[in-house]
Amino acid sequence: MSRPGLVARVLALVGRQRRLGEYDAEVTAHLELLADDLVRRGMSPDDARREARRHFGGVDQARERFRDASGFPSLDELAADVRYSLRMIRRQPGFASIVVLLVAIGVGANTAIFSLVNAVLLRPLAYPAADRLVVIRTVIPAMARTYPSMPAAGGEFLLWQSRVTALDRIAAVKADTQTLTWAGDASRVEVVRVSSTLLPMLGAQPVLGRVFSAEEDREGHEAVAILTYQSWQDRFGGDRSILGRAITLDGTRCSIVGVLPADFHFPRQDQLGALVGLPDRLDLLRPAAFVADERESLAGDFDWAVIGRLRTDATVAQADAQANAVTRDIARQYGDTLQLGAMVIPLHAQIVQQSRRGILLLGWSVAAVLLVLVVNLANLLLSRVSSRAHEASVRAALGAGRIRLARQLVIENLLLAGAGGVAGLALASAAVRVLAVTAPASLARLEEVHLDGTILLFGIAVSLGAGLLFSALPAWRLADASPQATLRGSARSVSMGSSGRRTQHLLVTAEVALSTVLLAASALLLASFARLLTVDTGLTPARVVFANLSASLTHYPDGAARAALYDRLLPSLRRIHGVASATLVSDPPLQGEAHVRTFSVDRDTRPLDQRPVVNLRYVDPGYFAALGIPLKRGRLFDDRDRGRRVIVLNARTAGAVWPGQDPVGRLCREGNENHPLLEVIGVVADTREVSLYKSPYLMAYVPYWSEEPPASVAMVLTTDLPVDAVAPLVRRAIHDVDPEIPVPLVQSFSDAIDRAVAPDRFQLMLVSGFAAAAMLLAAIGVYGVPAFAVARRSRELGIRLALGAAPRSLVRLVIEQSRAPVLAGIVIGFAGAVGASRVLQSVLFEARGVEWGALVSVSAAVAGIALVACYIPARRVVGIDPTVTIRGIGE
Description:
By secondary structure, this protein is an alpha+beta fold. Helix content is 52%, strand content 15%. It has a six-stranded mixed β-barrel with strand order 2-3-8-5-7-6.
């Protein structure tokens, strides 16, 4: 029978089963006719059928030739292997379930973490031409150690807008908190002022209305606002007639002109750079509409984030050069007193830079767990090869080639891995939902983490790749077995051999080494987290709650009016039963930097960029006692300082400005020379009011009544009442003073600390979970070595017991033979942990070099776990009955 061409064979697949049935019927009919003819010649029916088959030739061979000619033999073989694999899986449901479960855990964890990696680091930003979007930051070389880059001044942005031709669009952003009055209710809302070019540049298409016009970007024409989708739903009930309706923001009537779509995500916190401070939850947008002071500010208040879009033919380097040329021209206007530069950064890199290291650490950790899992499964399957050697030898004797034997085992394991992958994707879907709830709000692009086609393909690829990896070595060992040696043996399994045992030991070594590295990373993160929680902040968080408060600029337009408001509010709060004290501060602790000012002494001749930079706080005199900040020198504020210009510094500021001298009584100023001189009346201890993660900042404190206090402050109360109990009392006291002040959010200082450490806690939780999983898998792998050895050598061990060997000595013998790969793994893992500790320095809090104590403790713990894993199966030696062994030899 000639073999048809490829096209004909492909076409022949159509209706193939029907033709195979017709061919079988034709062969059967031919045999029956031939047998009938032989019966007529006098043969018996049985002899006639046998003679007919002999005369026809190999019936089965003829059918196979027809089957091969009418299709693809390799596909038929593959289908047969799949059917055989399914039968083998059904025969061993327990083992199959273990493999599926392990693969599901590995694939689920890796897919969930990859969804984070993909959303944060790999996927382009959800903006048009996202690869051309950049952030422009100001650089002051003399301050680069403290502030590598800063936001822009208003006038500086306007010069960039007109002179940086490498950008086809450029926009400015500034955060603000305002009081929204609507339908008789006042509430505190998070607002950003944005240039009219920003929303079109970011591709925001309102679901209602429009974006800002260029005309509305001018001072005096900015009485419009755009709602975010969430604010539209939460505050206005999704009312589609909201367009054109008037609201009041800080006493100014504004018309709502648009509503942003639900899937538009605005950068938050410091994702556009340090000192920007965008809100986590944005409520409204308003036009930038620079006022005169902002337009004229070239090197004063650096508080505008700047986003630009490169022209299609421009590069980041060109934009950087042009922006630097502008800042150099600005600096020349100040003579030798100021040096300025600029930094152009791709927007994606700027947004993810704070999350990159932590996300990569999680990615490497979960990949290590998957590798341990693959090694563990390979080890487990390698142990099972000997039990299937007889089956493979029989198949080889019947004509199956080595490739066919190996392929069948690989297919069997790929089916298990595929089932585990499907289950893993379901686990990943649940894990992603959990991550969305437990991940810290500061994690960049958290709202974009979800399962999509790319993630599903990744999960499928991981499951199949893992299946190929843990199948390769066992399949090679099975195909390499000698059929003659196996069939000559009386048992249905064969010994693994010395090379097989070495391979198994190497796999155990790899598992232990990887687990040691992961456990070491977890231990280092735990030690870092413990240091973070116990760091001396210089503050007393117990019994302290904050109530964020925002006063209307219309009702309280100047500093005197706001100071008078606070003078009425504080006594009202102090009258609350259960409140020991009430005070205020412009910015509550651990909320980041705010009111950053240059600091100058009287007759300071230093250039502006070489003067210290402080975080200024407006406080009530009772603030220091409420937070337990001790006085080190001089005195604190009191009522006699009303009408005086006084200031209190922390010790670090005093030491930086007047090293080795007493600063009390000296004169200084915050800001430029236009600001009045202040008398230093006291020095307090350093605190970590800005951040837990950094050393105490330079801090300066002024009484809230001495200058222009901000409209947004935090009321600080010391009380034994829980937050839920004190919150309504605080709101009632504030309402009694001014019913139009928005209801404040009340939170405890402990909650603020909890939020501050949330990123580290999240990272520690996941890495520790991965490390525990890896150690469990490694323990299973270590357990398998002596367990297999006891099962394989049970007859030998029984004979030794029968000849008088002590059970304890045999237990020790089994453990000692399993000890070498474990010790090798610990040594290799310890070396890897030392290297990992050096890499982790950048993500550890107050890292102290290689923490040998933690690494030694981890290695000792791994050794202890491995010893237990070896001892449990080795103890089975005691249960061997020598009489049964001897009886088996006799039989």
